[in-house]
Amino acid sequence: MPGRSPRRDSLARALARALAPRFALLLLAVVVARVGRLAEHRLAEPVGDPLGDVLAAALVAVLVLVARPRTRPLTAGVVAFALCAAAELLRLTPLPQALAGRWPALSPVLDAAFAPPVLLWSAVGAAVGAVAGVAVARAVTRSTARAG
Fold first, then answer.
1. Which residues contact 19 (CB under 8 A, 6 or more apart)?
2. Cis ω before 46 (30° cut-off from 0)
3. pTM of the predicted model as reported, rounded to 2 decimal places
4. How many CB atoms lie within 10 A of CB 144?
5. Alpha helix positions (H), 6-72
6. What pLDDT tens digit does each residue of the chain (148 aa) get?
7. How far apart are CA 108 and CA 68, in angstroms?
8. Which of 118, 31, 116, 131 is nearest to 78 (CA)?
9. Whole-number Å distance between alpha carbons of 21 and 135
10. Chain centroid to CA 126: how far?
11. CB-facing half-sphere around the CA of 118: CA atoms within 13 A
């Protein structure tokens, strides 16, 4: 474009390269969240709830990568699983019931029943989400580096 400085163009390209992985990861997060909700509510037992748990943990892993796109898959998976496990173990306390009683809109999120199998599904989902998220971030980073 006439009138644009080379410095401004290089800054714009650098910004695009930095934001592209996060944007791609946000799109992945939206897809994972939507598919997870559909799985949980549309698929019959014994598939719907476990698949919903897997995809919820995958979503957490992808969101960890949104915050830090260059995170290694193992780190993202471990952090995501730790967050999911902490949320599940929190159900052993009276806190979720108290919060849901105070804010009824949180009731669907703060189910008071502890379910040990959710920990297994969370581990699977965190691993899958971390690997998929890192693959997406790396592919977008390579693509924008070649284009720039």
1. none
2. yes
3. 0.81
4. 17
5. 6-42, 48-67
6. 555 666 666 666 666 666 788 899 999 999 999 998 888 888 888 888 899 899 999 999 999 999 988 889 999 999 999 999 998 998 898 888 888 888 888 776 777 688 899 999 999 999 999 999 999 988 888 887 776 5
7. 28
8. 131
9. 10
10. 8
11. 19
